[in-house]
Design a protein that fits this description.
Helix 4 packs across helix 9 and helix 6 (229-239) packs across helix 7 (241-249). It contains 9 helices and 22 strands. Strand 6 and strand 7 form a beta hairpin. By secondary structure, the protein is an alpha+beta fold. It has helices spanning 32-37, 90-96, 121-126, 128-141, 153-160, 229-239, 241-249, 295-312, 356-369; strands at residues 8-12, 16-21, 28-31, 45-46, 51-52, 67-71, 74-78, 86-89, 119-120, 143-147, 175-177, 194-197, 209-217, 224-228, 251-258, 261-268, 270-272, 278-281, 319-321, 328-332, 336-340, 347-354. The strands form 7 sheets. The chain has a 6-stranded mixed beta sheet with strand order 9-10-20-13-22-11. A 4-stranded antiparallel beta sheet has the order 12-21-14-19. A 3-stranded antiparallel beta sheet has the order 1-2-3.
Length: 373
């Protein structure tokens, strides 16, 4: 608005231009060629396709400096020749600097801190407000709960369509989970307790989310258990930085082996993005493949891995729910670990996996729709 302070401070020299934001973080400093390459003016960028059209490879690496001004919510750069002015949205500069809107997640170290309630199935499937609230729960807590779903596979497909599409894996697209099934050799198909873990540790791109719809339930036990893996990792970062460093740097291999199938992948237990933010938890001691480090390094890895396990095995951190027919549960498999208590009777779920990129895209679209990006 007129008279308000500029949202950023700008300085430049013959080689670079700098953008300082109103915080104490490092400024964004880029070359003049970078300005030309990332301009959103009509000669550089196709707004209808959101694609770059400037020829990056013909830009002068020693692009002469331009005149920089703030033009509303853009930065405008006028060049000394007849080249069209370059335009950069201030939101883009903030995003590139690492200050753009991220996932609004809330770490929960105890079950009580996961403040969510079941959402009605019809609201999520049929209304944009319901969908937005569901996405908010998943992004904030890493888990979302729904009630009133038809206890059948059609509910899985309807819910997935609100985020993306069903991911195909060795288990198929949509699948049924129940004790006694013999199609696959996995501990999920028995009645024993399963410690909290993430799925797809043996996949290079682990499933992003996992959706369950309860179809049939009798007997005792079998509560679904969820643990906030980001909260556990954050605890280690603060209280045991040596263990945190080990778990962010040592790739841990995992495998899935059954007749005709041998999958294998590896990555650190705690994966960070380029800004040092928590990105993905990979922890499944059932599927961990043998590997060896130098004896001293192996001892430190065992200690760090055990420290993380101690946190996720702490039942005060467990959010648990007894799912009955019509209940649906979705879990961010890159953030939360899930398990179950031992049970008797029948416990039948229909479910599937989704890609994390589709979930992230749905969050961005939702944020744009409500004007937060």
């Amino acid at each position: 608005m007129p008279g308000s302070a500029p949202p950023l401070h700008i300085w430049s020299d013959d080689e670079t231009v700098g953008f300082g934001f109103d915080d104490e973080a490092e400024p964004l400093v880029v070359s003049w060629r970078w300005i030309r390459d990332n301009s959103r003016d009509a000669t550089s960028f196709d707004a209808s396709t959101r694609q770059r059209i400037v020829d990056t490879f013909t830009l002068d690496p020693r692009q002469p400096a331009g005149d920089v001004t703030i033009d509303g919510d853009h930065v405008r750069v006028s060049w000394p020749d007849d080249t069209a002015d370059s335009l950069l949205p201030i939101t883009l500069l903030r995003e590139v600097s690492g200050r753009g809107p991220g996932v609004d997640y809330a770490l929960w170290h105890t079950a009580e801190a996961a403040e969510m309630s079941p959402l009605p199935y019809d609201a999520v499937v049929r209304s944009e407000d319901g969908r937005a609230e569901w996405l908010h729960d998943i992004s904030r807590f890493g888990v979302g709960l729904i009630s009133g779903a038809p206890p059948e596979t059609s509910s899985v497909n309807a819910l997935v369509a609100r985020i993306g599409y069903v991911r195909q894996t060795i288990f198929g697209g949509t699948w049924t989970l129940a004790a006694g099934l013999t199609e696959h050799a996995d501990s999920a198909y028995n009645t024993d307790t399963l410690e909290p873990h993430t799925d797809g540790t043996y996949s290079h791109d682990a499933p992003g989310l996992q959706l369950f719809v309860c179809a049939e339930r009798t007997g005792d036990g079998g509560e679904s258990v969820i643990v906030d893996g980001f909260a556990a990792a954050d605890h280690l970062r603060v209280h045991d930085p040596s263990a945190f460093h080990t778990l962010t740097t040592v790739p841990v291999p995992a495998h899935y082996i059954e007749h005709g199938v041998h999958l294998r992948a590896q990555r650190p237990t705690i994966r960070l993005d380029d800004m040092g933010n928590l990105l993905q938890i990979t922890f499944n001691n059932y599927d961990r493949a043998p590997f060896a480090l130098a004896p001293g390094d192996m001892d430190e890895w065992y200690r760090a891995y055990g420290a993380f396990h101690e946190l996720i095995a702490d039942r005060s951190r467990w959010w648990s729910t007894y799912l009955t027919p019509g209940d649906a549960l979705i879990i961010d498999n890159w953030r939360c670990l899930h398990g179950r208590m031992a049970f008797t009777g029948t416990r039948v779920f229909h479910g599937c996996y989704l890609n994390h990129e589709d979930f992230e895209g749905a969050i961005r679209v939702n944020a744009t729709a409500i004007g937060t990006m």
